[in-house]
Automatic annotation (TrEMBL):
Protein name: CxC2-like cysteine cluster KDZ transposase-associated domain-containing protein
PANTHER family, sorted: CXC3 LIKE CYSTEINE CLUSTER DOMAIN-CONTAINING PROTEIN (PTHR33104:SF2), SI:DKEY-29D5.2 (PTHR33104)
Membrane-spanning intervals of the chain: none
Pfam families the record matches: CxC2, KDZ
Lineage of origin: Eukaryota, Fungi, Dikarya, Basidiomycota, Agaricomycotina
Region annotation (Disordered) ranges: 1-132
InterPro entries named among the record's database cross-references: CxC2_KDZ-assoc, KDZ
Biased amino acid composition, Polar residues: 43-52
Residues in CxC2-like cysteine cluster KDZ transposase-associated domain copies: 221-327
Domain of life: Eukaryota
Protein species of origin: Auricularia subglabra (strain TFB-10046 / SS5)
Biased composition (Basic and acidic residues): 13-27, 109-132
């Protein structure tokens, strides 16, 4: 399967541990390759129902470091995001491994003797089947419908309101009647218009109904006479001109649109209308002379719908229109534009607030941890990646010189393409630039333009079958591409992902499904692009390359030997596929972004990526804890298997291998 449309680089954040023992405790690093019996083409021997010649999970490579948590196997998925990991499977072997199984004694397999999960059928025994629940509903359908019909009438409707107020004079029959009720309050009483207004001063956007002698008609609190006062806790402004008419505004909340009479504060030194609305938790559709606004509750709900459900703004707006007037299925274009613009500005303000930039966190970060983030960045830093001075020891420069310690402070990056996030070529505002140009995940547009101007004629790239717009991603660095995955564009995205002040000692394990082509002139290209003496060129010279485990099976045999992650010293069980799981989610974000203006499109994609990173962050501790338990369980069994494997090989060869690939502990006994 060929993936089209963008190149993305993202860290394998679980491929390393931030809590290794820094002391002199002896540790063990075991690299085991389980031999397997070659299977002839067409043979059905040793094939399980889940086996497939086109989909082999490479679990034959086991790399365990005591006290070090490494990346889970290929088919475990992105467990850090979900907070869980897949169950360990030690019986799955790679049927494609080479080796003469007939002449090599095969050690006994490592059996998983961990306690199995109990039978869940007993726990589910008391649950009713769906068919039984439906049958029960049919038996009680009349009872349920009668409860629905009861809501359409109230026996108190039309009687005298308990407040005792009169309408006009006190003649008999002019008392206020109980005609109004709220459809959002719990157990709403039927009351008069004065009572309904008094009880909803702090809930001015509730939906109300009025009894018209036939049924409860849907109206608004404005029809009952409610005026929404700003600046004085719901009370009218004492400085407001006598007899001044309130401002009619359209307010939208989770129940749809409605007209509301609003009175702004007119005191001397009063805040602007914009500030008064925002302080009342209303976000205006326009910043000057606002006449429409959306509640914060609605804005938060829309934002979560966009990043979690990937719902397009137009679909959300259409739902609001139907909530207001269900029979009106044709959405108003102006209202949609107002919601789209307000959502963009509100999300931008929330990103600044949540990143700490609104509170001036940059002053602290630039003083305590210079180089951690770009100035003004609204992106979330990864806590499991090595950041000099932030989560690395003071003597890290000496530690990385030790080949037995270097992998602990290595940066693992994954790079891949997404061709579902394309941008349509249509009539739009071409001058629209992202609010966070250079401060979000995307590379600053002026920097990208200058870079392409200098290296636009570079002849080295990977060209897909079709010409499309796309995007590239590098940890916290995105780039839109136009024709294929040009290697210079990938270089820029990669180098920007290191941050504003990368450490020269940093080494990188770069996973990319085209690394067999990308690495060939990588160091030379970076030298031409950034200068031979630049820190980028030094980082390029300290970069290791691998092809993700799922993709490597589709490469030729030479690539599999040279670029398999299991053949990289210190890579452990890193799969290199950490960048793949987000594609399902981010691909759906393409429906939201492909019709937007260029700047708005970038912000939508950044929001989706930031939400994914946040979910990984909150689940990383639980995922690492479970993997720590797996390591504790499998380590002694892996040692036992390694000793058994070594005993069946030539002593001189094993000794040479141990000398060439040293471990952190003493050499294992061969017999």
């Amino acid at each position: 399967m060929r993936i089209r449309k963008a190149v993305v680089i993202q860290e394998d954040s679980l491929a390393r541990s931030d809590h290794e023992d820094d002391g002199d405790t002896q540790k063990t690093d075991v690299n085991v390759r389980l031999p397997s019996t070659p299977r002839k083409r067409g043979s059905t021997a040793n094939v399980t129902p889940s086996s497939s010649p086109r989909k082999r999970w490479r679990k034959a490579y086991v790399s365990i470091s005591e006290g070090t948590l490494e990346q889970a196997s290929d088919d475990e998925g992105d467990d850090a995001m979900a907070g869980t990991t897949a169950e360990p499977n030690t019986d799955a072997y790679d049927a494609s491994d080479e080796g003469d199984a007939e002449n090599t004694p095969r050690p006994s397999r490592i059996k998983d003797s961990s306690p199995k999960k109990g039978d869940k059928q007993e726990a589910k025994g008391n649950r009713k089947k769906t068919s039984e629940q439906v049958a029960e509903y049919l038996e009680r359908e009349a009872e349920i419908l009668s409860c629905f019909f009861i809501q359409d009438y109230d026996a108190c409707a039309g009687s005298r309101c308990p407040c005792g107020r009169w309408k006009g004079d006190t003649n008999e029959g002019n008392f206020l009647k109980r005609l109004w009720r709220c459809s959002e309050c719990f157990h709403p009483p039927v009351c008069c218009e004065i009572c309904i207004v008094e009880t909803h001063k702090n809930n001015p956007f509730h939906r109300v109904q009025r009894w018209n002698d036939s049924f409860f008609e849907r109206l608004t609190l404005r029809d009952a006479g409610l005026v929404f006062h700003l600046g004085h806790g719901g009370e009218s402004c004492p400085m407001a001109p006598s007899g001044a008419a309130p401002t009619k505004m359209t307010i939208c909340d989770l129940q749809g649109f409605q007209a509301v009479d609003v009175c702004f504060c007119r005191c001397s030194g009063a805040a602007s209308e914009l500030s008064q609305l925002i302080c009342a938790r209303l976000f205006p559709a326009t910043l000057s002379r606002p006449r429409s606004a959306f509640t914060w509750t609605l804005m938060d709900d829309l934002r979560l719908d966009m990043v979690q459900s990937k719902k397009a703004i137009y679909d959300y707006f259409t739902k609001l229109v139907r909530l207001s007037r269900n029979a009106e299925v044709n959405a108003d274009k102006k209202g949609y534009e107002n919601l789209s613009r307000s959502s963009r500005l509100y999300n931008a303000a929330m990103r600044v607030r949540q990143s700490g930039q609104g509170q001036g966190i940059d002053k602290i970060l630039q003083t305590l941890y210079p180089g951690l983030l770009y100035p003004g960045s609204v992106m979330l830093p990864c806590p499991s990646c090595p950041h000099p001075g932030f989560n690395t020891p003071d003597d890290v420069e000496d530690l990385v010189k030790d080949p037995r310690q270097e992998h602990k402070y290595r940066l693992n990056l994954g790079m891949d393409g997404n061709y579902k996030l394309y941008h349509k070529h249509k009539l739009m505002d071409v001058n629209d630039v992202s609010i966070f140009d250079g401060r979000g995940a995307y590379v600053k547009q002026s920097v990208l333009a200058d870079f392409r101007k200098d290296f636009g004629n570079y002849t080295e790239w990977y060209l897909p079958e079709r010409r499309q717009d796309a995007r590239e991603n590098a940890r916290q660095s995105l780039i839109d591409i136009v024709i294929g995955e040009r290697f210079p564009d990938i270089d820029l995205a990669l180098m920007r992902s290191y941050g504003p002040e990368p450490a020269r000692w940093l080494t990188t394990l770069l996973s990319f499904d085209k690394n067999c082509q990308y690495w060939v002139n990588f160091r030379k290209r970076v030298g031409d692009e950034f200068g031979d003496d630049s820190v980028e060129t030094q980082l390029a010279s300290q970069t290791l390359f691998c092809v993700p485990k799922f993709h490597i099976s589709n490469h030729v045999e030479d690539c599999q030997f040279q670029f398999h992650p299991a053949h990289v010293i210190g890579a452990g069980r890193v799969s290199g596929e950490e960048v793949e799981p987000p594609w399902v989610e981010l691909g759906q974000a393409g429906a939201q972004s492909r019709d937007s203006n260029p700047g708005h499109r970038q912000e939508i994609i950044e929001d989706a990526i930031s939400d994914w990173n946040f979910k990984k962050l909150v689940g990383i501790v639980r995922a690492l804890l479970k993997r720590a338990k797996e390591v504790a369980f499998h380590l002694p069994r892996a040692k036992e298997f390694f000793i058994a494997l070594s005993a069946n090989l030539d002593d001189a060869r094993v000794t040479r291998w141990l000398r060439e690939f040293p471990t952190e502990s003493a050499e294992y006994p061969l017999h």
